[in-house]
Amino acid sequence: MVRGNGMVGSRRRGVRCGIVDTPIRLTKTVSKGGCAAKIAAGTLRALLETLPTHAHPDLLVGHDLFDDAAVWRVNDDTLMIQTIDFFTPVVDDPRDFGAVAAANALSDVYAMGGTPTTALSVLAFPVGILPDEVLAEMMAGAADAIAAAGAFLVGGHSIEDDTLKLGFSVTGFVHPDRLWRNSGARAGDVLVLTKPIGTGTLAGARKNDEIDEASMAPAIESMKQLNRLDLPSDLHAAVHAATDVTGFGLLGHALHLARGSNVTIDLRADDVPLLPGARETLERGILTKAHTSTTHYVDEHVAGRGGLDAAAWWSLVDPQTSGGLLLCVDPARADDLLAHVREAFPHVAVVADVVAAGAHPIVVRS
Amino acid sequence: MVRGNGMVGSRRRGVRCGIVDTPIRLTKTVSKGGCAAKIAAGTLRALLETLPTHAHPDLLVGHDLFDDAAVWRVNDDTLMIQTIDFFTPVVDDPRDFGAVAAANALSDVYAMGGTPTTALSVLAFPVGILPDEVLAEMMAGAADAIAAAGAFLVGGHSIEDDTLKLGFSVTGFVHPDRLWRNSGARAGDVLVLTKPIGTGTLAGARKNDEIDEASMAPAIESMKQLNRLDLPSDLHAAVHAATDVTGFGLLGHALHLARGSNVTIDLRADDVPLLPGARETLERGILTKAHTSTTHYVDEHVAGRGGLDAAAWWSLVDPQTSGGLLLCVDPARADDLLAHVREAFPHVAVVADVVAAGAHPIVVRS
Fold this sequence. Notes:
Chain A has helices at about 40-50, 95-110, 130-150, 200-205, 215-225, 235, 250-260, 280-285, 290-300, 310-315, 335-340, and strands at about 10, 15, 20-25, 60, 70-75, 80-85, 115-125, 150-160, 165-175, 190-195, 240-245, 265-270, 300-305, 325-330, 350-355, 360-365. The first copy, chain A, is an alpha+beta fold and about 375 residues long.
C-alpha cells in the first residue's frame, strides 16, 4: 500500500509516489482486478432467481434475462437502455484504468445496438492512501472515453473505501427496430467476435510481474477501445443478436446467446483471435479464479471440450474486461460487415456457426 | 468478521450465524456506514471542478451543479432524471439495509419532483465471509422498497469485495413543468424539512453499542421511509426548489440550495425535528468523521454559529442516510402542504425562512 505524502508528481506513465520515485501500480493495491472480480455466474443466477420478477408493458428487458442491459420503452420511437459496471483496477496507470472502466461500461449499450447518452460514475477511493492525483487522472481518462462515445458524464457517487473501484451506470437510447437482444440468433448465422481474447490471463500475469509492461500494452489498448461500430443501417439490421464478452468469458457469454435464442453455437477454438502473448501465459497456467468458476458454470452445457488442449479451453473461459462484441450475423452480409468492422478492429473474426439447437447449447472444436 | 458455516438460519430479526446463535450485525463488518462514508464534500467539489463540463441542449442538469441528480430532456414532455447512491451498512439487519439503501437512492428522484421508474443495483459482497442468505435478505428488502415506489429493479452489477456495499442507480421521469431544482428558491419562501435529523449520530452510537437495538428503531423506520409525497398538482407547484438531506447534513444541503438559488437561508435550530435520543448522543459527543468534514465545508458560509450550543451545531451537520426532503415552499401554501405531508411524515416542520441573499448564504440561530 502506497501512502500519499504531498510530494507526489506525475511522470511519463502514471503517478509516482514521493521521493523514492516508485511508480504506483494500481493493480498491486487489490487482490483481483477487472471483470475477474465479478461474483461467479452461478451464484448470481441463483440470487436473481429468488428476486420477484415484475411485468410491465414498457419493461422490455429486465433482470430475469441474461441480456447486457435493461430496456425500458419511453415511447413508440425510443427505447432506453440501462447498464452498470464497476470493478477494481485491471491496469496500473490511472488514466488507462479510467478509460477501460468507461469503455467497459459503455459496451453494454453498444451490445444492445444503442447509442450511449449519459453516464454516472461509481467510485470507491482509498482517500489518504492513494494520492488525489490518481483520482483526477482516472476521472480524466474516463471523461475522455465518455466524450469519444458522444456521451456525457452527468454525475456519480463516491465513497471512501479500502480498495479502489471505478465504474459507470450508462444510459443510452435506441429505436425499437434497431435493438439487438441475445434472443434473435438464427440457425445459419455466423458468430463474429470483434476483439481478441486474453485480457484475463495477461492482466493476471502482469499483476504478478510474469510479463513486462510492454507485453501488456496490446491488452490495454484493446480494453480502452470503445465497442462503437457505427454500422450503416443495412449492416446494423444484418445483426440478429449480440452481446459483449466480459467476465464470464467467450463461452459464458456465447452460452447466454445460445440459450436466449434457443440455438446451438458451434465454435472453432483455433479461429478465436488471441492477444499477443495470451496463448503463452495460458500455457504457463496463469489463470484467475474466474477461469475455474466459469468452467464450472458452462461445463455441462458444452460438448467437445475433450478435443481441445488445456490452453485452448482456458482461452474460451478467459474473463475479459472490456472485451469485444459477439454478433450473430446474416451469413449473406458477413463479409460486408467484417470489412466495415475491420477498419477499427483488425482482429475481427468469424469464430462459430449458429446451428439448430442440439443436445448442447455449445459445441467446441479445435 | 463472521464466517458462514452452512448452519445459518433466519430468526425474528436478521440472519444469525451458526451454532453459537450470534446475530450477524452488518455494521460491525465495516469501519463506517451509510452516507457517513461519502467522500468529504470539499474533496469532491475540487475533483468535479477539474472535469470538463459539456454543453448540450438536452443536458439540463449535469455534474457541474449541486443538484441531486442529472436531468436529460428526452422530448418536450419528458425529462429523464438519473442518480446513483451506494454505501456500506448503516443498520444491522440485512432486510432493513436493503430497504434503506433503496429508499436512499430513490430519494434523489423524489427530490427533483420526479417519479422513479427503474433501478440497477450496485453490490459489493464478501462472498464466503457473509452467508449468501444475507445477500438474499438484503435484495428482498430492496426489491420491496423499489416496488413500493412503483419502480422496477431491472438489473445491476455485483463484485466480490472485503466489505459489503449496496446501492442503486435510479432513473425516473418528470414533466418539465414539474421539475424541482435547487435553483428555484425565492426570498419569502419557507423551508420545510420532512423527516427528523439524527441518523448519523444514532447509527454511530448503535455501532459501538452505546445505545441498544430498541433505541435505534425510530431511526431505522425513518431511513426506510420513501420520500414519496404524492402531492396534488397545486401543492407540487408551490414547491419552488427542493433537495434531500443526506451525507452533508442539513447545513451542507441547505448551502447547496442557498447557493443554487442565490438566497440566504435563515435557520432556527430549535425548530429542527430530531429523532428520539439524537440530542443525547450528540451531547455525549458521539460523532462521525462527516460531522467534522462538513463543519469544515460549511463553516465560512454560515453566520451565527456562536449562538448555538455544541449539540445543536452537530445536529445541523449530522450526516443523514435516507434523510428527508428540504422543500422551499410558497408561504401562502405552506400550511396546506404541511397538512398533506404530515399524514405520512408526522415530524415535518418549517425550519427556516428563505430571505434575500445576505453576507452569508446561511444564518443559524437557536
